[in-house]
Amino acid sequence: MSTELKAMEGSICHEFETGLPAAAVWEVYGSLLFGKLMPQLLPEVVSKVELVEGDGGAGTVLLVTFPPGTPGSETFREKFIKVDDENYIKETVVTEGGLLDHGFRKYMVRIEIVGREEKTSIVRSTIQYEVDHEHAGSHAPPVFSTDGLATIAEAITKYIKEKRGSESVISPK
């Protein structure tokens, strides 16, 4: 009789009301501009985002570096597994480093920009995770939350509101 230990799986979600049209929010979230803005808008969260491969569509790989002194891993790689420009959905999965170094088997973030009425939208951020059996059964499983995604949604919304009206959110190539 096998006593195979199972991993703990789950998901957590956060929603942020933007007060902006979904298309305007997606201009940032659905493009590589998102990664370029993170170190500028939230240097205490992310110090650098580098494009490893891809053009911003599915298959794109980014290397994200945390500021010095951040607990845990210094960097992680994430891969875009879905970028849906019609439905405003982006899914990324951590492929190396980050929470994978701390007991997670899977760490996927799904960002969905949900249009509400005419001029507002919600950023729905969902984390789907799987923690290995060693950490799932321990008294102190790995800790994470949607706080970072909430902070990012607030910063991106503020950035778009400041840029809106004077010019396009995405600068010309």
Automatic annotation (TrEMBL):
SUPFAM superfamilies to which the protein is assigned, alphabetical: Bet v1-like
InterPro entries noted in UniProt: Bet_v_I/MLP (IPR000916), Plant_def-hormone_signal (IPR050279), START-like_dom_sf (IPR023393)
GO biological process, one term: defense response
Domain spans labelled Bet v I/Major latex protein: 36-136
Annotated Pfam families: Bet_v_1
Listed CDD domains: Bet_v1-like
PANTHER family in the cross-refs: OS08G0374000 PROTEIN-RELATED, S-NORCOCLAURINE SYNTHASE
Family: Belongs to the BetVI family.
Entry protein name: S-norcoclaurine synthase
Lineage: Eukaryota, Viridiplantae, Streptophyta, Embryophyta, Tracheophyta
